[in-house]
Structure prediction request, 945 residues.
Amino acid sequence: MSSDELIWRIAGGSGDGIDSTSQNFAKALMRSGLDVFTHRHYPSRIRGGHTYVEIRAADREVQSRGDGYNFLLALGDSFARNPQEEAYYGNEEIKPLSENLDDLREGGIIVYDEGLVSEEDVEAINLEERAEANDWHVFPMDLRSLARDHGREVMRNTAGVGVTAALLEMDLEHIEDLMSDAMGGDILESNLEILHEAYDIVTEEYDFEHDLRVPEGSHETEQALLSGSNAIAYGAIDAGCRFIAGYPMTPWTDVFTILSQNFPDMGGVSEQVEDEIAAAALAVGASHAGVKAMSGSSGGGFALMSEPLGLAEMTETPLVLIEAMRAGPSTGMPTKPEQADLEHVLYTSQGDSQRVVFAPGNIEEAYEQTRLAFEIAWDYQIPAIIIYDQKLSGENTNVDVEFFDREPKPDLGSTLTEDELREAAHDNSGKFKRFNHEDAENGVSPRSLPGQKGGRYLATGNEHSPVGHISEDPDNRVAQMDRRLDKLESIRRELDEERESTQTYFGDETAEYGIITWGSSQGAVEEAIERLNENGHSVKGLSVSDMMPFPEQEVTEFLESVDEAMVVEMNATAQFRGLLQKELGRFGEKLTSLLKYNGNPFEPAEIVEGYEVNLADEDREPTAQVRIEPAAGD
Amino acid sequence: MSAFNAIGEEREIDRDEFTPGVEPQPTWCPGCGDFGVLKSLKQALPEIGKTPEEVLTVTGIGCSGKLNSYLDTYGFHTIHGRSLPVARAAKLANTDLEVIAAGGDGDGYGIGGNHFIHSARENHDMTYIVFNNEIFGLTKGQTSPTSPKGHKSKTQPSGSAKTPIRPLSQSLTAGASYIARTAAVNPNQAKEIIKEAIEHDGFAHIDFLTQCPTWNKDARQYVPYVDVQESDDYDFDVTNREEAAEMMRETEDVLNEGTVLTGRYYVDEDRPSYQAEKQAVGEMPDQPLAERYFDDDVEWERSYDLLERHT
Prediction:
């Protein structure tokens, strides 16, 4: 067991306060000087059902949930099992103990709630035997009664935190502070009592011999604990976005609600509307009228946005759309991550349609690339899409507070002022040549806004002349198409030449084996590569975030520099590998895929195993729930 | 200083300002009712003192969708059924704009039906003109949501089994605060109704009867017309919901049987517009949002200032 890190799993039923408890505990660990990474597993229901949150904490950067975990706090599920209230939700039995044991590492700690986990249940899973075999340290505690005696039964999560802190010899100071911030009055008092009572029971009455402790660490700068959804919302705020329209759908809802809650204080407008077609169309309308606007959804809702997306492309209305992937097809698995909407996002909408697509790989990139998406969208008058998934949406990691200390950038890009409009080209009737292709630079023809003097034009989703009249003139068609197509090439040029690469590299530059990935699988790949290299292999990695326009040059250089490469992504049809081969037109024999699509994100060990299986050149399958898709010709 | 100088500009508006130069000429068929809407709008707009640049017309797809190609304002020709969400967002983004949305009966009551209900429900401050010719014109004569039951077309060759939609009643139920019906062959009434609708502070819905001489020759909606406000036979209070509903029922029952009633059906001056409601609850700034981007004095809020809750 690696003792340099704590991976604490709190398990129970949805609605048991697992989320809020873990959020506070993660923050307490961060405040004690550790880096943290949280992973949330929950079913698509409001109350009951098996749910857990994992918090990984170490005195070094943590990029993934890690492999397995070493501390289980099994709370039980009062909503499913509380006979007193005759409340029974759903028909499955919740087994916070048995369902979670498979991934518990050797030497790990188990605390379970005697009040809610019956003796029969414990016997049924041969806990004693398994504990002995795995050197687990088991602590049955009646957390439910403890909570009931000092407050309310639901506060047993606080009791669980008290027990955890005592077993790990952790100071209660940060936990107390956070509780005081979050609540007050009698509730706070009861919770503090429960916390201390639980802590004291363990320290005074228990002897324990396990060596797992909270690692010691310190941060040089102040840290903030954020999710990918927070980062995307904050990137939008700093880019000057002040209009959002949406329809709730998991996991996109997080970004939508964060902005809806903040916009009133910032003079912004948020609209929850009748459907996703309307949502994206509203963003188009607001942007057309001169506001930096966005919309977004998850797979099924994004499908409805295909139409307004195309309208934005044809009318050259700048716009940012967010696509938070979850497992599909159709409504799929609403609360489970997958990276399977890539092709959907790249190619949806009719005609030779084009957009910018970024896929951030972690919290910082989510912020950075959202800002970038707004800048590019308004400079080039093209829709930009941020594609991420349920994993990045919900996982929390600590980031330097200073990272966010930036100037906002609210400018409207290639939008003219009235003074500039006076100098601009007009036709004989006085209409502004808004879609002028004669002097266009990088495919961009500057735009005017309704209400501006001298800027009248028609924006239409039909092919149109420079002033916007519907036109089927062949020469005009070719000129307009070519100008619009020029945008993506120009954007690629700008990204390559004038901006820092948004691709992420890791490992030893001279390595001959490459692992290539995209989006939220980045962290697990990075960790797997570190581990492989520590074990004497020579591997390097590339995580690509520009999906469109594709960073052809960078990826080519990477693939040319290795003998073989494994493409890691969370889907069953190797969509990103398909994109690589489509964009680069070669490397078919060099690329193998490691695919996972069971609803859970990659753990680093699975990538390590995938590498070993692939390199060993043996006819064996990986043991985990992943699949190898061989190279062309293999 | 405003970044939108054309808005609120006070000057004499020339009647021809809303007509573009020689190009483009309307592609509507000779005798099409859409000419009537265009003409009424061109007459109404100068009379209410709007400059072409402070008006944004947003249209859907179909013959009606081409309205703003032939009307010289700022224009946005969108996609089938989506004029309303685009239009209402433009108004939310810049409340100083005069926003007029237009589309056909297929566009507005069919594919865009959901948006129609919700835009009326929310009472957005805008005007919505539906060109109602009871047929799909540009796609060459299919049955539309307002086509009478039994209407034969290439897609319903045995005659439509569907009862037509009741746009006025539906609009009232959904929550529109100004509802009128007029007709292309009634230009004077149409102009007055358009003026009222634009000046109305809330969602103003005009069901505009437009004849389709090419695809819907059999429609009997055009004669005779009776103006419900002018006739002594129809005495009712337009501000009374129940009486308005009763009148709508009557005209929607007989629309295809000879007598067509036009005029104002419902006017609610007391209901605040959505913008006003949203401002009242603090979800929308008092100044036009779009202005903010041109105001050097605005201090843009930063996410950095939100981080306290994350530390």
